[in-house]
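Hi Y.,

Following your request, here is the sequence exactly as I used it, all 189 residues.
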Amino acid sequence: MKFDLNKLVWPALRQVSSGDVAGLGKASFSKRTASLKSRLSDADRVVPSVCPYCGVGCGQEVYVKDEKIMDIEGDYASPISRGCLCPKGSATMQLVTGTHRHQKVLYRRPYGTKWEEIPLQDAMDMVAVRVKKARDATWEDQTGKGHPLRRTLGIAHLGGATLDNEENYLIKKLFTSLGMVQIENQARI
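Below is the corresponding structure, written out as C-alpha cells. Let me know if you'd prefer a different format.
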C-alpha cells in the first residue's frame, strides 16, 4: 500500500510509510516547517567586519537589507573566532541600532537638575575650552632640577571597550601630544 506523504497528517504514519522511522528526513516535516526559512535569507548582502569591542578582532558578518543592518553574526570563516562571539560581540547589533541610545548631545548645566539638548559644535567647543584650561593650569614643563617633563597630570583618559584598535591608536597619539600621561582603556582593565 503506497501513501502520499503530503496527505498524511500524522507524522508517525509518514515516518513508517516512508521508511524514515527515526523521523530525521522529510517525513517529519509539516507544512509549516517545510515553509520555514532563515531570518537572514532576505538580506541583500553580507558585509564582513570585525567586532569593535576589544583587540582580539573576532570576525563578524553584517547582514544588510535596504541599506539597513538587519543582523550581525559571528563569521565562521574567521580564523580567530570561527563564528563565535563573546556576549559583548553578540550584542553589537544593539550598539549600532539600539533605540535606547541618545542621538543628540545632552548637557546638564552646573547645579542644574535637567538635561538639555545642545548642538554638537557647542559641545565640542566646550570640551576643547575645558581641556585647554585644565592643561594650562596643570602643565609641568620641567622638574625642580631642570629636567624636561612637558606633561600634565590634570587630565586623564579612560577609553571605552567599544573603540576599535585604530580609534585607540589615534586617541593615544592625540592625548600624548597634549602632554597627557594617564591614558588607559577599559578593555584592558
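The mean pLDDT is 84.

Thanks again,
Q.
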